[in-house]
Description:
The complex is a heterodimer of chains A (204) and B (91). Chain A contains two helices and nine strands. With 204 residues, chain A is an alpha+beta fold. In chain A, strands 3, 4, 6, 7, 8 and 9 form a six-stranded antiparallel beta sheet that branches. In chain A, strands 1-2-5 form a three-stranded antiparallel beta sheet, with no helix packed on it. In chain A, a hairpin with a 5-residue loop joins strand 6 (144-155) and strand 7. Chain B is mainly alpha-helical and 91 residues long. Chain B has one domain (2-90). Helix content of chain B is 62%, strand content 0%. In chain B, helix 2 (14-42) packs antiparallel against helix 3 (45-63). Chain B: Belongs to the SPCS1 family.
Amino acid sequence: MHSTAVRIQNAFGFFTTIAFFVAALTALSTILYPANPSASINLRNIKVRTGRPHYTSTKSQEYLLLNFDLDADLSSLFNWNTKQVFAYLTVIYGSSGTANKHTENEMVLWDAILPSANAAKLHLVNEQAKYKVNDISGKFLESNATLRFEWNVQPHVGALCWGSIEADSEGNVLSQAEKGKRGKWSFQIPPAWGKKPATKKAAA
Amino acid sequence: MDALQNLIDGFIDFEGQKRAEQLCNVLLVLTGVIAYVVGFVLQDLTYTVYIGLGGTALTMLAVVPPWPAFKKNPVTWLPAGTTEVEEKKEQ
Lengths: 204, 91
């Protein structure tokens, strides 16, 4: 500490140490704020249509189109260390039978960036899926699908954390043990253009 | 020119160095604690950032310049020529 240059170095060096500890305590303080997000979903107008991925393409493939109602409250995720929350709705389905080798499929239907606690109370009615959904093989094969409402908390300091709410067709929550969820969360992907499957015709 | 050099060097005495170091540590720890507590109580991280940066700037101002308070105990050297220098014994 004998000269100006050394004093600047020492003061700045200790400042970085203090800044590290303040940041670490800030990141740790997140555990003091337990969050209890809730969500309920109602599906409307689920249909599958065929189309071409590009107008120059000759390949026709199936697209899943749906509308949904979403009531969600993510405001409890906001505390002094929350920068923003990314919320998204995922459709999950497995393939039925051996026709499709891709047995686990997840796609994002809709998403939103929630910048504040005020914006974190979602009330969507008859919202259209934001992204078009198509299977890697081009056909959904009328699989059983489930919706999962997920979120990603982005803090100012510290680690990102994820959470989700998933439920079955009766609205019973399958994971994340959250309470107060209702609505239609799972469904069977309908055949393209609403046609009856060939097997059912044969049975009838 | 010497005055300018002295200002840039900013030498302080030994007692002043000890005081400057203690002052620096105490002020910066205090800044960190106040910044954290204020931000936590008001639930806004921007307070933490600005109190932290402001407190550090004040600490720099208090510690870095060679203030007269850091020069109160100058080292007193013995006057020149008061000690006898032993002659080297040739072997």
